[in-house]
Amino acid sequence: MMSSLTDFNRRDFIKTASALGALSFAPHAIAMGKKPPIGRVVIIGGGYAGTSAAKYIRMWSMGSIEVVVIEQSPQFISCPLSNLVLGGSQQINDLTFGYDLLKKNHGIKWVQDTVTAINTDAKKVTMQRGDITYDRLIVAPGVDFNYDSLPQLQTGDAQKQIPHAWKAGWQTVYLRQQLEAMPDGGVFVMTIPKAPYRCPPGPYERVCQVAHYLKNHKPNSKIIVLDANAEIVSKKGLFTKVWANTYSGMIDYRHDSAVVSVDVPTKTVSTEFEQVKADVLNVIPPQHAGKPAQMAGLLESDYPWCEVDFLSYESKHVRDVHVIGDSVASGLPKSAHMATSQARVCASAIVELTQGREPDPAPVFANTCYSFVDDKQAMHVANVYRYDAARKIMLSAEGGGVSLAPSEKEGAYAKAWAHNIWSDVLT
Amino acid sequence: MNKLLLNLMLISSVILPSQGKAAEDFVYADHALHTRTLAASCAACHGTQGNAVTLNAEFDATTLAGLDKAYIVQRLIDFRSGARPATVMHRHANGLSLEEINQLADYFSHQKKIKRHVPATQTLKAVHDE
Ligand SMILES: Cc1cc2nc3c(=O)[nH]c(=O)nc-3n(C[C@H](O)[C@H](O)[C@H](O)COP(=O)(O)OP(=O)(O)OC[C@H]3O[C@@H](n4cnc5c(N)ncnc54)[C@H](O)[C@@H]3O)c2cc1C
Prior knowledge:
Chain A is α/β, with parallel strands linked by helices. Chain A has helices at 2-19, 25-31, 48-60, 83-87, 100-106, 156-161, 170-181, 202-217, 236-245, 291-295, 336-354, 408-426; strands spanning 39-44, 65-71, 76-77, 96-97, 109-112, 115-119, 124-127, 130-133, 136-139, 143-145, 187-192, 222-227, 251-254, 259-263, 268-271, 275-277, 280-283, 287-289, 308-309, 314-315, 321-323, 364-372, 378-388, 393-396, 401-402. A five-stranded parallel sheet of chain A has the order 5-2-1-9-21, with helices on one face. In chain A, helix 3 packs parallel to helix 11. Chain A is globular. By secondary structure, chain B is mostly helical. Chain B has a domain at 25-109: Cytochrome Bc1 Complex, Chain D, domain 2, CATH 1.10.760.10. Chain B is 42% helix and 0% strand. Chain B has six helices and no strands. At the A-B interface, strand 4, helix 7, helix 11, strand 22 and strand 23 of A face helix 2, helix 3 and helix 5 of B. The complex binds flavin-adenine dinucleotide. Residues 44-50, 70-73, 79-80, 82-83, 114-115, 140-142, 166, 198-199, 202, 290-292, 325-326, 334-337, 339, 369-370 of chain A line the site of flavin-adenine dinucleotide.
């Protein structure tokens, strides 16, 4: 149906053009929809950041910029709400989507492949199947895990036994299966890396979700949290209250407890102070900018994230290469909402720069992160961020903050948030 | 505090283009770039170009596309003052300038109302995780 309509329109265009007689080539080409693109943007990563950038560049350039997305995964699997799979109120298949509508609705060229090398002098990206050149490159690969201090966890096999589940997918499923198989009275141990890491409140939301499941199904079980940070990184007051009130006696939280080694067969973690043996062990490893960011030489020498110009998200080190999402070095939370906001500032700037115009000199955007404390109730942290021209960074505006308490109403709004962000980035 | 008084105070704290001109009469052409990215950051809850998906009438986020401009301005000002209670909108309304509130309202009032959908879910494929 769709394609015959297109054929019809196309034939119609040809007829109209010939009826008007000898037209110059250019308008004919426009009528045929064959106006050459004014530039090609290649985007590495089709997560929250990459999909948003692709869609909004196509929308705001009115289709005049060619967009090619390179994404290794055949599906989009949402990290937001994936902690609820551990709690049991969501299934991984509720969070798994295809890319077809996004590609079709916006005329985005899509390559399912893994980027293996980037040559920023030749403006060329190498994938397993071959090379592609770009006018501008957007690097949006999310986070990569740093196993330097935890080499025992580097293999796929070790990660099946001790999943991080910090990229939603099969590891989320394995961790849930392990919780289901754990006897009542078992010990769940989770370790949190030093900030910055993806999703500041995410680990504490996960503690609530696991506690919710255990409280209802295995009430004699315990949770030990080994946090490398000095204190709970996000929504501290709220999480502390929920743990004390709703999950009283279940959660043993230990701050300043960075993992120094893991024994995979016995599921034992060691910190500087102690050894802790788990029945189910979830080690969230330290993180840095995704591999493609490393390949393009975008990381700071002393800090494993990418410095950018916050007006365009262009790398501070490499021209015509932009970085968005979790890989960016900033004081901004590494969240999906933030990734989409950065993506759209970057998209808007690229559309302007490609046409020889200046981007918005003072971008402003919002961020809302919900955390679920059980199967129904959620709480927010929300802020507006404004560009500070003197310091050249994004700063949170007055008025931001967190919920007074979790509620079912906010739980419903948190679901609405997920539905709308999925609709925005995938259709 | 008296709601009308507060609104007047808020409105008079921005520089109006000319004496006696209502806040609604701003011309926002210069702000097109600023507003399109700011408005787009509302999409996480309110959908692409202000068209929220509709699933559960009671808790759907408001579709902003095509709403009356003055109505949007008033809502945001009421969230800001606390005159209208909110779960999260007071956080956003307080972070915006009055000029931005006007720009956003103008932008959303001009968007076409279209039905938006949540994409269909799929079964997770048996590929190797990272
Ligand atoms: C448990 C959990 C809960 C969370 N909850 C929330 C929440 O409620 N709200 C919220 O706002 N945020 C939440 N987050 C954070 C959010 O998931 C991230 O901030 C967001 O995914 C960042 O988007 P991104 O595009 O930078 O990275 P991603 O979404 O990870 O996308 C990166 C993409 O790049 C691809 N890629 C990487 N390397 C290559 C390569 N070499 N070649 C080709 N493709 C490649 C990957 O396959 C991936 O699809 C949560 C995160 C976790 C782990």
